[in-house]
């Protein structure tokens, strides 16, 4: 099964429920195609390794992450580096006030400033960077 999902991650859809709950199988599938998350057992969306593999392909995969992982700084930063729109899934205000995370986001699109904390929205350098995008 691992060989199959390494070729096509979405082949996970045809795996048994036991295999869709196996973190090694799901991780192999997600490394091939993050959208294989749709076929994984929900509890694996709380598996940091699985979710890191997913957000490193597409930041929007953060939307599948369990709530505690949406507050994981390293995971959020990896997601935002791939797609600034991942900010909409961030669940804790301290990450919206994180200068590195928001700088990564506004370098992609100035509209990311919408998700910044009030303090960062008043940061002249960050606003200038956003305006240049």
Count of DSSP-assigned helices = 9
Based on secondary structure, the structural category is: mainly alpha
Radius of gyration: 16 Å
Instruction: Name the overall outline.
Output: elongated
Q: Biggest β-sheet, characterized?
A: none
List the secondary-structure elements in sequence, H or E: HHHHHHHHH
Instruction: Please report which band the strand proportion falls in: under 5%, 5-15%, 15-25%, 25-35%, 35-45% or over 45%.
Output: under 5%
Question: What labels describe this entry?
Answer:
mainly alpha, 133 residues, elongated
Q: Brief description of this entry?
A:
By secondary structure, the protein is mainly alpha-helical. It has helices at 2-7, 17-20, 23-32, 48-55, 73-82, 93-96, 99-108, 118-121, 124-131.
